[in-house]
Amino acid sequence: KQEVTQIPAALSVPEGENLVLNCSFTDSAIYNLQWFRQDPGKGLTSLLLIQSSQREQTSGRLNASLDKSSGRSTLYIAASQPGDSATYLCARGGADGLTFGKGTHLIIQP
Amino acid sequence: EPEVTQTPSHQVTQMGQEVILRCVPISNHLYFYWYRQILGQKVEFLVSFYNNEISEKSEIFDDQFSVERPDGSNFTLKIRSTKLEDSAMYFCATRASRAFFGQGTRLTVV
């Protein structure tokens, strides 16, 4: 059974800090790795998709990396803002759809 | 940005009743999915649908569940006889490369 683990489960930092969210997965035979944002009671917003042949993707202040050999991905958020407060989900893409981690609940203090 | 639309946003039903959750996929996407998220838990894969048939399904997707595209545009999830434990947020997702999620239907079984 595929497992996706996210560390930390929760994180609270002052506005302006750079931060890293971690994701690990058990199966290196992935199709892709996708990061999502989820606001309370809302749907999932896709942030970044890294194909299995890629090592990183960038969008604005976000940068995601993928290391298939170690089964790890990181999401780097630069110059954090209060609007970044949300739960961030990592999902491993395979033949059976997406396998999600439990997420990191991020709070950015103004 | 293109959107996946789900209706209704919230449905309350009595145990044993049938429910149909509806999704309008992004028009040029060919892969469709249903996921669910029980309150406080991970997002879980239910089923994937491609070329008008189920391509993968999880152990959650038992005989009580079915999916179809009744009119070539909408994508529906039917639960034949709801149970209390079916209470969850149900997300529709579609993809070309990366997955786009709808805002979800919150199903409450009483």
Name the features.
heterodimer, A: 110 residues, mainly beta, six-stranded mixed beta sheet, five-stranded antiparallel beta sheet, 11 strands, B: 110 residues, seven-stranded mixed beta sheet, four-stranded antiparallel beta sheet, 53% strand, globular
Structure description:
The complex is a heterodimer of chains A (110) and B (110). Chain A is mainly beta and 110 residues long. In chain A, 0% of the residues lie in helices and 60% in strands. Chain A is globular and about 40 Å long. The mean pLDDT of chain A is 94. By secondary structure, chain B is mainly beta. In chain B, 0% of the residues lie in helices and 53% in strands. The relative contact order of chain B is 0.34. The mean pLDDT of chain B is 93. Chain A binds chain B through residues 32, 34, 36, 41-46, 49, 51, 89, 91, 93, 95-103, and chain B through 33, 35, 41-45, 48, 56, 58, 91, 93, 97-104, 106.
The coarse silhouette of chain B is: globular
- In whole angstroms, the N-to-C terminal distance of chain A is 40 Å
Main pleated sheet of chain A: 6 strands, mixed
Biggest chain contact = A-B, 23 and 21 residues
Order of helices and strands of chain A: EEEEEEEEEEE
Total helices of chain B: the number is 0
Mean pLDDT of chain B: 93
Rg of chain B, alpha carbons? 13 Å
From the helix content, strand content and strand pairing of chain B, which structural class follows? mainly beta
By DSSP, the count of extended strands of chain B is 11
Low-confidence stretches of chain B: none
Produce a short descriptive summary.
The complex is a heterodimer of chains A (110) and B (110). Chain A contains no helices and 11 strands. Chain A has strands spanning 4-7, 10-14, 19-25, 32-38, 44-51, 56-59, 62-67, 72-77, 86-94, 97-100, 104-109.
Outline the fold blueprint:
The complex is a heterodimer of chains A (110) and B (110).
Chain A (H helix, E strand, L loop, with lengths): L3 E4 L2 E5 L4 E7 L6 E7 L5 E8 L4 E4 L2 E6 L4 E6 L8 E9 L2 E4 L3 E6 L1
Parallel strand pairs in A: 2-11
Antiparallel strand pairs in A: 1-3, 3-8, 4-5, 4-9, 6-7, 7-8, 9-10, 9-11
Chain B lengths: L4 E3 L2 E4 L5 E6 L6 E7 L5 E8 L2 E5 L7 E4 L6 E5 L8 E8 L3 E3 L3 E5 L1
